[in-house]
Amino acid sequence: MAQSGASRGRGILAALRRLVPSPEAPRPPRHLVRGLRTCTAAGRTLQCPPLPGAGSLPWRPYSTQSAQSLEEESLHNIITDSEKLKGSLSKHEFQAETKQLLDIVARSLYSEKEVFIRELISNGSDALEKLRHRLVSSGNPQGPLEIHLQTDVDKRTLTVQDTGLGMTREELIQNLGTIAHSGSKAFLQALQGQAEAGSSIIGQFGVGFYSAFMVADRVEVFTQAAEPSSPAHHWVSDGSGMFEVTEALDVTPGTKIVIHLKEDCKEFANEDRVKEVVTKYSNFVSFPIYLNGRRLNTLQALWMMDPKEISEWQHEEFYRYVAKAYDKPRYVLQYRADAPLNIRSIFYVPDTKPSMFDVSREMGSSVALYSRKVLILTKASDILPKWLRFLRGVVDSEDIPLNLSRELLQESALIRKLREVLQQRVIKFLLEQGKKDPEKFLKFYDDYGLFVREGIVTATDQNVKEEIGKLLRFESSALPAGEVSSLAEYGSRMKAGSRNIYYLCAPTRQLALHSPYFEAMKQKEMEVLFCYDQFDELTLLHLREFDKKKMISVETGIVVDHYKEEKYEDSKAATERLSDAEAEGLVAWMRNGLGERVANIKLTPRLDTHPAMVTVLEMGAARHFLRTQQLAGSSEERAQVLQPTLEINSSHVLIKKLNELRDGDPELACLLLDQIYDNAMIAAGLNDDPRPMIGRLNQLLSRALECS
Ligand code: ADP
Ligand code: MG
Known about the structure:
By secondary structure, this protein is an alpha+beta fold. The strands form five sheets. A nine-stranded mixed beta sheet has the order 3-8-7-6-9-5-4-10-11, with helices on one face. The protein has a six-stranded mixed beta sheet with strand order 18-17-20-19-22-21. It has a five-stranded mixed beta sheet with strand order 12-13-16-14-15. The relative contact order is 0.07. The protein binds adenosine-5'-diphosphate (ADP) and magnesium ion.
């Protein structure tokens, strides 16, 4: 029987709830789930790469299980309480600096305490990695390489155990009794005497093992080194300055850390809370992580894999996971480098058009920063220039220490270098796409062109501006409607000796073709790029030059000078034009009539069907100024800022008529002059409000009808 809409809806909702483990961790992509060894897509069978330490246990993806089958699942837990202590204990004092660090850790941390789990898992993963390396190089078979976590609400403990390399007695004392690396030392120095300021810093710095004392009033370590004859040991400390070491028996090879949680940190004895933290930071750790017997990390770090081994649908699923999106990526760029920086990265351009929200400059980058598969920041806004914030994905770099604060991230030379390298690579990729599939690229340009323009406007380096400028596309007077050209292509069509790239900003091709400015260029058979986007004008003003050619708006006065240089020849017969004397008289009369509304009036041979046009030195800038300054006021006031030149076409019928009327009918001549001027200002986009001229137009119409 067919389901009713409502009950079907509930069914879907219920199914969705089962599929989504927690709001922090979206549904793990099914195809990324380890354990699916072969997968079929589009008729092809694809092998997933071998998984390190996957063990021999049957593992089923939790994402596709019903609640019931989870109950039935056989749990895999290696954590026991079998250890016994043997012989007498020895007491040790922490190294002086470590003591200070512990003090700061214990006293001043309130936020992001959860990262201690990431740190302990990372240490476990390191120990497993070291063991695997040793096993592989000695040719021994691999044992299970795993990390286990166990929560115990009653005892208020969290246990983290790995089957890694373990530590000998000396290593235990050395590694856990002194600050191992200089990063922490620098951190300590930076924090000297200002413990309060450090309250939010440790979570970001990460001080490895010691971060456990943020949440613990006692930490116990059981460890059995991989050396066959080495005895196991127990280490315990309350973090107050002393630690004790005792020999131990029945310790599983590897290291087990028992965190006795402080009363106010008992949340970390809660399974759901721990699961949330592990999936946030450690979802891509190579070794299987179990929490209370259930496998947690189910995702493959796609960015570490050989691009050839990743199928399209794996990318799709991974994209949906990292972007928290439901669409597909339209472009995928997997970029790996070892010099100048170690980079493993994947970038996606979403298939959907960016929303107003995405466009906002308030939005930072959505690319996550990892170091060796461990999350540093979910939204690392500084690893890409702002204009590339539409990209989704992951950047992993071994060169970035885990213990990097947000502040350092912003300033670090390393991050600056990373940003440069990534920007270059992304631009190169987009250029390649433009060549490979121009149609698809144009769609991208339509949807994401605003970001490209922003990149040009905001870049501080001219080379970068020009690099991004290579992505620009415009229609051109030399190409049929609908076809576009890059700036480089324009360059390749340029006549020998030309030094400029000409463009005209107009809302449509139709308006561009009929603009007086284009008319002037057409006569010279100069190619003009048509810019329809409202931000093109600003973008090209900022670009200024491309490949040593000047970007010149055909509306600017500079063009006029350029023509002067080229000794423009008037093609029209002298009889069609006003004589020199008539023209001189007319210009003087017009100057008088227009007063402060113009800075200059001159004759131009460049127009054909238009009686006049206005030029200002920087038309784009002038228009932008008018738009942003909301310059109201009279046309005289506006003219004082703009300093417009009125260029007139002395062979045009209206201009010739004007010359007759100035003596014959001065009143009508004045109306006509004002209208010619206003029309030219409108054509230039410098007069947005034509309402004040309606009265005059009506007067002119009445006169026209009387005459007829
Ligand atoms: P880091 O990991 O940056 O070296 P930590 O404070 O996290 O600093 O750890 C200090 C040292 O303790 C590690 O370098 C390692 O030698 C040792 N260690 C910590 N946890 C483990 C573990 N689970 N197994 C083996 N050795 C460990
Ligand atoms: Mg560590």
